[in-house]
Amino acid sequence: MSKIGAHVSIAGGLEKSIERGEALGCEAIQIFSKNQLQWRSAPLSQARGERFYRSWAASSIEEIVVHASYLINLAATDATGPKSIAALEDEIERCDLLGIDDLVLHPGSSRGRSAEPALDLVAERLASILDRTSHKRVRILLETMAGQGDLLGRDFKQFRRILDTLDWPSRVGICMDTCHMFAAGFDMRTEAAYQRLLDQVDDTVGLDRVGCWHFNDSFHDMGRGLDRHAHIGEGTLGFAPFSFILNDPLWEHTPCILETPQNASGHAGNMAILRKLRGG
Ligand SMILES: [Zn+2]
Ligand SMILES: [Zn+2]
Questions:
Q1: pLDDT tens-digit profile of 92-125?
Q2: pTM score, two decimals?
Q3: Residue 225: CB atoms within 10 Å
Q4: Where does residue 38 rank: exposed (0-12), middle (13-18), buried (19+ CB within 10 A)?
Q5: How far apart are CA 70 and CA 109, in angstroms?
Q6: What CATH number was assigned to the domain covering residues 3-278?
Q7: Residue pair 7/29 in contact by the 8 Å Cβ criterion
Q8: Paired sense of beta strands 28-31 and 3-7, if any
Q9: How far is the C-alpha of 138 from the C-alpha of 135, rounded, in Å?
Q10: What are the sequence ranges of the domains in the chain?
Q11: How far, in Å, from the CA of 144 to the mean position of ligand 2?
């Protein structure tokens, strides 16, 4: 059975996220490992990392993934570039200390330049980061994006270009966000459309590269390039795609993480829906 859960807050301390996840009945959670809107944060000590890992081991949470800071842009050609490299290495270090293997990263923004050189710069920087952290097992999951503005990651050919340049390292995978893919023009509302999407993923990056799903319904229609998450079943995607994914043995060990709005019944309501769609 796929592992369902939600993005939960670390307010009050990293361990609090585990309590929050358990209260929601999550089998998997996603967290930020620090304030995601600040470049700098106090370093994580070995002792704190161990305390977190012990709390996790004693909990019912099976998988934890970290979402990297929104500030990181590996495609930036200004001072943000070097800052992003340092910040991503810090994120990898933090994951390593917390015993977390998967780190979700937005591929970046080309900021007015064409996509190809921006993708090549991302790959070049990723290569050096992977090289410098080669003693760590943390895997970077590049997230599919909605195609808004100059954001990279709107189609699988872009991910393939990065992977080709990197020579397909085992420490780079993909995180598939349902809302973002739908906004970027990928349908998944019927069984046939869902299978076509999987075929496309398999033909370009390989289904075994997918390490995480982000479960979000979409406020806007397909192909609009607009990224606004909606509660499951209340957007333009509807229940069907989530049912296909949850009942597909392919994703048996893959975390399916809600990033839906916190209003109304919030994560609790969406978790109840996912359990129903999965049949338990
Ligand atoms: Zn994201
Ligand atoms: Zn997402």
A1: 999 999 999 999 999 999 999 999 999 999 999 9
A2: 0.97
A3: 16
A4: exposed
A5: 11
A6: 3.20.20.150
A7: yes
A8: parallel
A9: 9
A10: 3-278
A11: 8
Written as six digits, the tokens of 253 are: 């060990």
CA distance 31 to 67: 6
Ligand nearest to the CA of 218: 2
* Ligand nearest to C-alpha 212: 2
Q: How far is the CA of 124 from the centre of ligand 2 (A)?
A: 24
Name residues with Cβ closer than 5 Å to ligand 1, which is an ion.
143
Between the CA of 179 and the centroid of ligand 2 the distance, in Å, is 8
14-24 residue pLDDT tens:
999 999 999 99
pLDDT exceeds 80 at position 264: no
What distance in Å separates the CA atoms of residue 214 and residue 28, rounded to the nearest whole number? 11
Per-residue pLDDT tens for 197-208?
Answer: 999 999 999 999
DSSP per position, the chain: --EEEEE---TT-HHHHHHHHHHTT-SEEEE-SS-TT-S--PPPPHHHHHHHHHHHHTSS--EEEEEPPTT--TT--STHHHHHHHHHHHHHHHHHHHT--EEEE---B-TTS-HHHHHHHHHHHHHHHHHHTTT--PEEEEEP----TTBS-SSHHHHHHHHHHHT--TTEEEEEEHHHHHHTT---SSHHHHHHHHHHHHHHT-GGGEEEEEE-EESSPTTS----EE-TTSSSS-SHHHHHHHT-GGGTT-EEEE---SSTTHHHHHHHHHHHHHT-
Q: For residue 67, which ligand has an atom nearest its CA?
A: 1
